[in-house]
Amino acid sequence: MLETNPMKEKVMEILQGDPLYSVICETPLEETLYTDSYLTDIIEKKFYSTPEVAAWFEITDAQLRYYIKPFEHYIFDDMADNPTTATVIRLNMPSILKLRMILLLKDEYRVKGLKRLLGIDENGYIVKQPAATTALAPPDELANKVEVLSNVLQQMMQTGLFHMQQDDESGAMQITINESYLAQNINLLSMESIQQLSEVQDRTEKLTEESKSLQKQITELKEENKKDIAFKIRERQIENEVVSTLRTEALEQFAEQKKSGIFAKLFRSAQVELEKERFINQYLAKHLSKRLDKALREYHESS
After folding, report:
1. What are the φ/ψ torsions at residue 48 (nearest 5 degrees)?
2. Which residues form a coiled coil (predicted)?
């Protein structure tokens, strides 16, 4: 009689649909996941401390916590009943299994690669994949799409079924059916083939429109990036100019106040220098924000 592993079925049930589990499946690591010795001792509804779990995995408590930190939202899955506090971490069976998969895959994928597999952003949160969006795609992705579309169009033109010609009014290039080619071969085409050709033409027109749209988005994105960089550089220059002006004004006022009496003799002493810096800092704190806002507003209004 074949022996069954009840823990294997339980592990498969808990991890069904998990992105790391799909990576481990049908690899040598999968069997390790089902046959770890700690599975004979674990109680599904119980929570365990990190030293207990670290002992099962034959690593230190510090090492275990190192791999928990970047994946907290994945491991704990925002469980409301988790007794974990700011100083004490408690793990139940699903959390332990997720942590075990991280440790099994860490040498191959590293922390950065595991985050990509799980869709974790730089703040440690799992990014939910949104529905279809009309937002601009990154330039590299747009360029790849344009290249794919270009290859598709080139292969379609090589069939001889289409012509590319310039529209007299708009000057844009258009793809049309090669009527002479069809006339020569119409008797050989079935009704199904004719329908397919119509669908191909429709799809070709859509691909052409999408290609134009992607090219336009790339151009707009590049122009926006240039403008943003120029604005930031100029804003920093304005800020430096305002600070320099205010420091000059502060020094002039300080010198005017301290030019007579004993301070004229001690102007270069450490105490006077300290008072001077304190005066300048107070002057900057008082006037910088208002003066900078005014300068930036004038710059943006003139741009």
Report:
1. -120, 150
2. 197-224
> pTM value?
0.43
Q: Residue 16 has what pLDDT?
A: 93
Instruction: Tell me which residue has tokens 């590299």.
Output: 140
The neighbour count for residue 102, using CB atoms within 10 Å, is 20
Q: Residue 188 carries which DSSP code?
A: G
Domain residue ranges of the chain, discontinuous segments joined by +: 6-118, 139-227, 236-302
Rounded distance between C-alpha atoms, residue 20 and residue 94, angstroms: 13
- Provide the 3-class DSSP secondary structure of residue 200: helix
- pLDDT bin (cut points 50, 70, 90) of residue 156 is confident
80 against 149, higher pLDDT: 149
Task: Compute and round to an integer the Cα radius of gyration of the chain.
Answer: 34
pLDDT for the residue 126: 81
CA distances from 72 to 7, 69, 114, 187, 256 (A): 25, 6, 13, 66, 60
**3-class state of residue 273 by DSSP:** helix
Rounded Cα–Cα distance for residues 73 and 69 (Å): 9
- In sequence order, the β-bridge partners of residue 164 are 175
| 95 contacts: CB under 8 Å, gap ≥ 6 | 75, 76, 77, 79, 82
Q: Among 133, 149, 52, 131, which Cα is nearest to 91's?
A: 52
Residue 232 in tokens: 């930031």
Question: Cα 282 vs. chain centroid, distance in angstroms?
Answer: 41
Residue that has been written with the tokens 């300068």 in this structure:
295
